[in-house]
Structures are given as structure tokens and as C-alpha cells.
Amino acid sequence: AASFFQVSATGTTSFSRSQVVNSVKQLAKKHHSAALAQLASSIASVLKHGASSGADPFAKVKGLIKDMISKLEKEGAAEAKEKAYCDAEMKRSGLKHEDLADDIETMDARI
Hints:
By secondary structure, this protein is mainly α. Helices cover about 90% and strands about 0% of the residues.
């Protein structure tokens, strides 16, 4: 028979697990993020199956979160690089447009 402490600890752990999943789901909904929704699903699966295998499921959850952060950092760096390229091209294009507008003015003045 399980002691009161064992039952209480199991209930608390179960609450913590559902709280983690619900928090990530709320973030996914708030930010309209499919990636966070997928993370919530993965966490729920790991917590469900990790509990039955006896392994520490929160270690796996931490790994999932670290992987997600790493992925987002890489995506952010790629987007920043693309934005810098676009900004440079827009500046170059604007300068060329100004030069061509000046050339048109000069040629119109000659006519």
C-alpha cells in the first residue's frame, strides 16, 4: 500500500507535469506559434512515456527546450543576416535610383 507521502508526491509531480504542458500550450496560443505547440506535444509525450519508464522525464524536457532555443537562435541569426542584406540592397538601389533621376533631369535640361 502506498503511504500518504508517496500519494502526495505523485499528485504533486503529476500537477507539475500538467502545469509545464499547459504553460507551453498557452505560450503557443498567445504567440500563434506552431513550433511551441509542437514542443508542448513533445513534452506531453515525454512526460507520459518517461514516467512509465522510470527515467527522469524532466531531463528530457530540458533537452527539448534547449534544442528549441538553439533552433530559434539559429533562425534569428539567419533572419538578421537576411535583413542586413536586404537593407544594404535597398540602400544601394535607392542611391542608384537617385543617380538615374539626376541623369534624367540633366538630359531633360539638354532637350
